[in-house]
Amino acid sequence: MLKIGHRGASGYEPENTLRSFKKAIDLGVDMIELDVHRTRDGRIVVIHDETVDRTTNGSGDIAHMTLAEVKELDAGKGEMVPTLDEVLDLAIGKVIVDIEIKDEGLAESVAEAVKKRLEGGAKPEDFVISSFSENELETVAAHANLRRILLTRRAPQHAVAAALDLGVWGIGAPSESTHGESVDDVHRNGLKVFVWTAHESDEAEAIRRCRDIGVDGIFSNFPDRL
Ligand code: G3P
Ligand code: CA
C-alpha cells in the first residue's frame, strides 16, 4: 500500500509548502500529493484553492496574480507558495510526485513540465497525474505517457466506466465514500483504489479501516500514521 503525503505532511506543516513536502519525505512516504494552479503570467504554482485567501496572508485569485505577487505572500511559518518546479527539484528521485490538476486548461503545461524532467533523467514512474477533470486527464495522455488517477467525490465504483474509458491507472475517492465492496469492484476491473482521509473526524481510525478493505494507497495529512 502506498503511503502518500497529502499536500505534503499538512497535518504538521503548512500545506503545499516546501517545508511540508520535506517533512513528508523525512517521514518516509512513497509519494507526495500536491495541487496546482496557474498564475496570470503562466507559471504553475503549488496551492490548493483558486485564491490565496485561506492558506496565505494575502487575498485574491491566483489567475489574476503574477508569480512575483504570489511569492510575496507568507504561506505559513514564513514559507512561500512554491512553484511546481521547486517541488520537483526537491522531490524527484526521493519520492513519487502526484500532481493534482485543479484548473481546466492546465494539463498541457503540466505534461510539458514533466516531460522536461524526463529529458533530464527522471523516470515516468516518478510521476502520477491526478484530477477530478476527465478532460484534463485526457489531455495529459495526449502529451505524455504517465500514470493517472481519476478523482471522484462518490464511491469509487461509480467512476469505473469513466476510468476505463480514459485508460487511467486508478481511482481516487474520499475514504468516507469508500467501502469494501466498492474496492473489490474497482479491483476486478484492473484499476487501483486510492483514498484520502483528510475529512474524517478520526484520521487514525479511517486509516485502519481503509487498510482493512484493501485500498492501494492512502493520502494522509499525517503520513507517519500510515
Ligand atoms: O488527491 C486527492 C485529494 O487531494 C483530492 O481532494 O480537495 O484535498 O484536493 P483535495
Ligand atoms: Ca489534492
Quickly give the structural class. Answer: alpha/beta
> Which ions, cofactors or small ligands are bound in this entry?
SN-glycerol-3-phosphate, calcium ion
CATH superfamily: Phosphatidylinositol (PI) phosphodiesterase
Major sheet: 8 strands, parallel, barrel
Poorly predicted regions are none
- CATH architecture classification name: Alpha-Beta Barrel
Domain count: 1
Query: Which value, in Å, is the CA radius of gyration?
Result: 17 Å
Question: In words, what does this structure look like?
Answer:
The protein contains eight helices and nine strands. By secondary structure, the chain is of the alpha/beta class. It has one domain: Alpha-Beta Barrel (TIM Barrel), CATH 3.20.20. An eight-stranded parallel beta barrel has the order 1-2-4-5-6-7-8-9, surrounded by seven helices. Helix 8 links the parallel strand 8 and strand 9. Helix 1 packs parallel to helix 3. The termini are close together. The model has no long low-confidence stretch (mean pLDDT 97). Calcium ion (CA) binds next to strand 2.
Summarize the structure.
The protein has 226 residues and is α/β, with parallel strands linked by helices. Helix content is 31%, strand content 20%. It has a single domain (2-38, 84-225), classed as Alpha-Beta Barrel (TIM Barrel), CATH 3.20.20.
Give structural attributes.
binds SN-glycerol-3-phosphate, TIM Barrel, 226 residues, alpha/beta, eight-stranded parallel β-barrel, binds calcium ion, 8 helices
List the helices and strands and how they pair.
Blueprint: E1 2-6, H1 18-26, E2 31-38, E3 44-46, H2 67-71, H3 84-91, E4 96-101, H4 107-119, E5 127-131, H5 134-143, E6 147-151, H6 160-166, E7 170-174, H7 180-188, E8 192-196, H8 203-212, E9 217-220
Parallel strand pairs: 1-2, 1-9, 2-4, 4-5, 5-6, 6-7, 7-8, 8-9
Antiparallel strand pairs: 2-3
Helix pairs in contact: 1-3, 4-5
This protein binds SN-glycerol-3-phosphate (G3P) and calcium ion.
SN-glycerol-3-phosphate (G3P) binds at residues 6, 33, 35, 48, 100, 130, 151, 172, 196, 198, 219.
